[in-house]
Design a protein that fits this description.
single chain; alpha/beta; Rossmann fold; 2 domains; seven-stranded mixed beta sheet; five-stranded parallel beta sheet; 32% helix; 20% strand; globular; binds dihydroflavine-adenine dinucleotide
Length: 368
C-alpha cells in the first residue's frame, strides 16, 4: 500500500484547498513545495507588524457566494475595498473610470455632461472601422484623454511593447461608471483576511503534512511512488519535459522599502500611468488592513521579461502559447493518476476565487 492517497505538488491556494478537502474526506495527503514557505503567491512576510504581500498585491473579491462562504468559514475578512488612485505626471485620478475621474479630467459635474464629453471624445475616432492594434481599439472605445492619461503608458509598461504593436483583442471594452463610485470591483464580496493571507493558508493546511524546500523535479520518481494520485500545480510544460515547446510568461520585479513614516501615500494602491515612470504601481501594504504602525512598507512594482530564473507571474495567452498549452492539456488528460490544477498547471490567469472554485471542482470530480 502507498503511504499517501494524494501527493500535492505546490502549497499555493489551489494545492491547499485540494489538500484541505482531501484531509476532511479522510484521505492521507502529502503537500510539497519548492519554496521555503507555504501559500504560493498569497504568502505575506511580516515586517514591523505589517503583512507585506511578497508576490504582488492580493485583494480577495468574488461574485461566487459558495466561495465567499467557504473562505469565511476558515478565517474572518475585513471590509477592505479596492479603490486605486492613478498618478499621471503628478496629477491624481480615481479609478476605475467613474464620475470622480471625469470631473478630474474634464471638470464635468453630472452624468449627462460626462456622457456628452465621452461621446465627443469617441467621435474623433469614429472613422476607425476595424482597429488594427491596441491603440486604435482603445481610442475608438474611449477617445484621446482617457487613453493618453490612464491607459497607454500603463499598458505599454505592462507588456513591454508599444501599444501600436499590441493586438486589438487585449481590450474588448473600457468600462465607464456614471456614478461617483471608486470601488474597483463590481463583485458583491470583497476583503482581506484579518491578520493576513498566511492565516487562510494555515487554516487550509491545518493537520496536513507539508514538506517545504522540496522540488518535485529533484526527486520525481520517488515522490510519485509515495502516493496513489499526484495533484500537480507547477508548470505544465516542465512536467512534460517541454516536449511541445516552452510556454511564455510575463514576470514582475518588486522593490520593497521600509520607511520611517506612518503613512506614505494614503492608499494601498497607486498606479503610475505615464511611460516615463518605470514602475506601474506602488503598494503601501498596511492600508490593506488599516494598519496604525509608526512605520510603513512600500513596494514598487516593475513589469519584467521572464526567464527560467524569474517567477512566471502571468501567462501570455496569445495564439502560439495557447496552442502549445492545449497540446499539454491533451497530454494531461491522458495521464491516469495525475491531476493538473492552478495557474501554472492549467496555464491560465485565475483570480483567487476562480482558483478555489477550480480546486473544489477538481476534488469533487476525482474523489477516490
Ligand atoms: P501559486 O503559484 O500561488 O502556487 C503554486 C505553488 O507551487 C508555489 O508555491 C510553487 O512554489 C509551487 N511549485 C511550483 N513548481 C513546483 C515544483 N516543481 N515542486 C514543488 N513545488 C512547486 N487574485 C485575486 O483574486 N486578487 C488579486 O488581487 C490578485 N493579485 C495578483 C497579483 C499578482 C502579481 C499575481 C501574479 C496574481 C494575483 N492574483 C490575484 C492571482 C492569485 O495569485 C492566484 O489566483 C493564486 O495564487 C493561484 O494559486 P495557485 O496555487 O494556482 O498558484
Amino acid at each position: 500500500m502507498k503511504t499517501y492517497d494524494y501527493l500535492i505538488v505546490g502549497s499555493g491556494l489551489f494545492g491547499s484547498v485540494f489538500a484541505h478537502e482531501a484531509k476532511n474526506a479522510g484521505k492521507r495527503c502529502l503537500v510539497i513545495d519548492r519554496r521555503k514557505h507555504a501559500g504560493g503567491n498569497l504568502y505575506c512576510e511580516n515586517i514591523d507588524g505589517i503583512n507585506v504581500h511578497e508576490y504582488g498585491a492580493h485583494i480577495f473579491h468574488t461574485d461566487n457566494r459558495e466561495v465567499w462562504q467557504y473562505v469565511n468559514s476558515l478565517v474572518e475578512f475585513n471590509r477592505y475595498t479596492n479603490s486605486p488612485i492613478a498618478n499621471y505626471r503628478g496629477k491624481l485620478y480615481n479609478l476605475p473610470f467613474n464620475m470622480n475621474t471625469f470631473y478630474q479630467l474634464w471638470g464635468v459635474h453630472t452624468p449627462a455632461e460626462a456622457e456628452e464629453k465621452l461621446a465627443e471624445q469617441r467621435a474623433e475616432y469614429a472613422n476607425i472601422e476595424c482597429p488594427a492594434n491596441f491603440e486604435e481599439q482603445a481610442l475608438k472605445l474611449c477617445g484621446h484623454d482617457i487613453y493618453e492619461t490612464l491607459i497607454k503608458g500603463y499598458t505599454e509598461k505592462q507588456w513591454g511593447r508599444p501599444a501600436r504593436e499590441l493586438p486589438a483583442e487585449i481590450i474588448k471594452r473600457v468600462p465607464v461608471r456614471l456614478t461617483f463610485d471608486n470601488n474597483y470591483f463590481n463583485d458583491p464580496y470583497q476583503g482581506i483576511p484579518t491578520g493576513g493571507y498566511n492565516r487562510l493558508i494555515d487554516a487550509l493546511l491545518s493537520g496536513v503534512e507539508v514538506r517545504l524546500d522540496t522540488d518535485y523535479f529533484a526527486n520525481r520518481a520517488e515522490l510519485d511512488g509515495l502516493a496513489n494520485v499526484t495533484v500537480f500545480t507547477g508548470m505544465i510544460d516542465k512536467y512534460f519535459d517541454y516536449r511541445c515547446g516552452r510556454l511564455e510568461y510575463r514576470s514582475l520585479r518588486f522593490d520593497t522599502k521600509r520607511l520611517d513614516t506612518p503613512n506614505f501615500q494614503g492608499n494601498a494602491v497607486v498606479n503610475y500611468t505615464s511611460a516615463d515612470v518605470p514602475y506601474t504601481r506602488v503598494i503601501e501594504h498596511k492600508h490593506f488592513e488599516y494598519g496604525t504602525q509608526p512605520t510603513t512598507v512600500v513596494t514598487y512594482e516593475y513589469p519584467d521579461t521572464w526567464n527560467e530564473d524569474k517567477e512566471p507571474y502571468y501567462p501570455i495567452n496569445d495564439k502560439r502559447n495557447n496552442a502549445v498549452a492545449n497540446e499539454y492539456k491533451r497530454m494531461a488528460e491522458a495521464q491516469g493518476n495525475v491531476l493538473f490544477g492552478g495557474r501554472l498547471g492549467q496555464y491560465a490567469y485565475f483570480d483567487m476565487d476562480d482558483t478555489i472554485a477550480e480546486a473544489l471542482r477538481l476534488f469533487r470530480q476525482n474523489i477516490m
